[in-house]
Specification:
301 residues; alpha+beta; Tetrahydropterin Synthase, Chain A; four-stranded antiparallel beta sheet; three-stranded antiparallel beta sheet; 7 helices; 21% strand
Length: 301
Amino acid sequence: MGDGTAPALNRSRETRAATQSGYLMLLVWLVLFGIAIWAAVTNIQGETVGWNWKWGVAVASGIVGTLILCGFYLINPNEAAAIQLFGSYKGTDRESGLRWVLPWLTRKKIAVRANNVISDKIKVNDLRGNPIEMAAQVVWRVTDTAQALFDVDDYKEFVLAQIEAAVRAIGSRYPYDDHTHDEITLRGNHDEVGVELRKALIERLDVAGITVDECGLTHLAYAPEIAGAMLRRQQAEAVVAARAKLVEGAVSMVEMALQQLSEKQVVDLDDERRAAMVSNLMVVLCGERDTQPVVNAGSLY
């Protein structure tokens, strides 16, 4: 009986393929083609009848030339070709232009240029359990052609699946918003969240020989079913935060006023008058509307 563990993935590694410049082999093919034509024409125009060495040269040149023709292939810029022999990986050719390889070797092309993907909007629960909608933009490219072709079934579908998984993981790791600004949030820390998302994607896509150049969130919002309630909560939190700041400033101003009146001996206030002054100043400073002062022309009592 086995120990129940799955066998480890046999990871491929890109190596350089043994290929040739196609222009050199094209010159060789032209020479063989010329020899075959010469041998055939001289035999036809000659007086000798039947098989002779020139026919042998023509046939041999034709066979070799046909084999050479089967080995030509073209690689565009930012493209590569994985070379295989009966299913066995023999290396990757990244040289662009006309290339040549032994005709019994097969070639499988793969693009190594940058790809831009914008994921679909997905619904995620953030750190506080609130349903939110997220979407991301990712720029990725293939760095190891052997891993991309042979270690995953379809590397493009694999990228899309891992982008969705990474966005879900990042979305559940942070809260959508925090009015106290004490922690990283999805809405307020785009750069930090983008760095975390890129790091997570690089780790997930490493098995496929793919790296991520840049990524970031393109859509972030509360889910429609709670958007109205969360908007009202955000407005309430903003009002509370503003009032807290207003009270803090008012207390500081009252304290400064009492301190300066006492230090400069402008007026000598007992506890009752001090309390009345504090109450009046707090009403004036914290009120939402402009106050209308009332002048007392008589006694303070």
